[in-house]
């Protein structure tokens, strides 16, 4: 946990003395949107309020960027042994869970060790295994493919790790067509629901906040998928994030926008933390 690092970071960002309590950020909380001088003013003009809100919105983006670099530094300081031991504990917790075993279709990320992401290789292997320990069937597995820099990401079905090729960011992604030249099935046009998303990220907290790498790819995709599930009358999927210990923040440290999609549960080497009512009912 890097509470002290994150607190000192927020103090620097907000020009507060170090002893000041860390600010709390809540969805739709007015004091996040408006700077102090505006909160004190009795009746700001609409133009002044709009200008102040755009400055404050930029500040949240800056705070997110700063927290990402702080976490990146903390992750780089971990030894390979520490990373491997947490990878093992996190993957075992997931592989042994009833919600993973019972899931029939899932979206997962292909972990990238250069980015210090929690390893998903054992989970992916089990999902693709035709003789899975649970019901002897492979699961339907969809993995991300970035389409452009405008937050467009698709989740494409793969049946083997050989379906993956390295992209320009050195992350493995599925080719858009399979070995026979057929377009891969994609989640947003599939005819059945996804049970489970295994999510990457830079920082998380126990209230369900998640900070990603800043592309907005996951928040945008999850918003689209949740709308689709609502339209189709499907159950919403369980959103589970995987986290090294140093990526778990105290409540109130992670800056939040209205487009951030909260997670249902968090898995770290200390175990599984169910957060939402949906997760408390299933985990
Ligand atoms: N394994 C994995 N796949 C994923 C994601 C992810 O976070 N992890 N994505 C989730 O969106 C999308 C790809 N987005 C990415 C965004 C940034 C970087 C990256 O290398 N970022 C560097 C910093 C680059 C910079 O700031 O200039 C880094 O984080 O160190 C990689 C993937 C889809 N696939
Ligand atoms: N659903 C959305 N619609 C429009 N813009 C969005 C949406 N989701 C995110 N964005 C924009 O994408 C940019 C990056 O967002 P943010 O910093 O929250 O991403 P992140 O959580 O780090 O990334 P990700 O969700 O991909 O893991 C921001 O400018 C944000 O406003």
Instruction: Tell me the total number of β-strands.
Output: 12
**Strand fraction:** 15-25%
Low-confidence stretches: 1-42
Secondary structure: helix percent = 25-40%
Helix count from the secondary structure assignment:
9
Radius of gyration: 20 Å
Major sheet: 7 strands, mixed
3D shape: globular
Mean pLDDT: 85
Task: Tell me the structural class.
Answer: alpha/beta
Biggest sheet strand order reads: 3-2-1-6-9-11-12
Element pattern in H and E = HHHHHHEHEEEEEEEHEEEEH
What molecules are bound to this protein?
A: the ligand Nc1nc2c(c(=O)[nH]1)N(C=O)[C@@H](CNc1ccc(C(=O)N[C@@H](CCC(=O)O)C(=O)O)cc1)CN2, adenosine-5'-triphosphate
Distance between the termini: 24 Å
What does this structure look like?
The protein is α/β, with parallel strands linked by helices. The chain is built from nine helices and twelve strands. The protein has a seven-stranded mixed sheet. Strands 8-7-10 form a three-stranded mixed sheet, with helices on one face. Strands 4-5 form a two-stranded antiparallel ribbon. Helix 1 packs antiparallel against helix 4. The longest helix is centred in the first third of the chain and has 31 residues. The radius of gyration is 20 Å and the shape is globular. The N terminus is likely disordered. It binds the ligand Nc1nc2c(c(=O)[nH]1)N(C=O)[C@@H](CNc1ccc(C(=O)N[C@@H](CCC(=O)O)C(=O)O)cc1)CN2 and adenosine-5'-triphosphate (ATP).
């Amino acid at each position: 946990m890097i509470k002290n690092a994150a607190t000192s970071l927020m103090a620097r960002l907000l020009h507060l003395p170090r002893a000041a309590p860390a600010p709390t950020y809540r969805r739709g909380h007015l004091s996040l949107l408006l700077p102090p001088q505006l909160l004190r003013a009795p009746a700001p003009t609409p133009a002044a309020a709009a200008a102040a809100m755009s400055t404050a919105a930029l500040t949240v983006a800056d705070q997110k960027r700063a927290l990402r670099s702080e976490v990146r530094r903390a992750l780089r300081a971990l030894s390979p042994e520490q990373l491997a031991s947490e990878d093992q504990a996190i993957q075992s917790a997931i592989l042994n869970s009833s919600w993973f075993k019972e899931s029939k279709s899932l979206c997962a990320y292909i972990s990238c060790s250069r980015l210090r992401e929690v390893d998903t290789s054992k989970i992916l292997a089990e999902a693709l295994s035709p003789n899975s320990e649970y019901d002897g069937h492979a699961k339907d597995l969809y993995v991300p493919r970035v389409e452009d820099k405008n937050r467009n990401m698709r989740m494409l079905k793969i049946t083997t790790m050989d379906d993956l090729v390295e992209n320009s960011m050195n992350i493995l992604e599925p080719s858009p067509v399979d070995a026979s030249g057929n377009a891969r099935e994609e989640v947003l046009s599939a005819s059945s629901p996804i049970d489970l998303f295994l999510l990457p990220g830079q920082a998380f907290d126990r209230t369900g906040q998640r900070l990603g790498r800043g592309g907005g790819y996951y928040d945008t995709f999850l918003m689209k998928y949740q709308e689709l599930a609502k339209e189709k009358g499907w159950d919403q999927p369980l959103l589970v994030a995987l986290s090294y210990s140093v990526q778990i923040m105290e409540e109130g440290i992670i800056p939040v926008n209205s487009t951030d999609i909260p997670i249902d549960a968090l898995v770290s080497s200390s175990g599984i933390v169910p957060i939402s009512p949906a997760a408390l009912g299933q985990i």
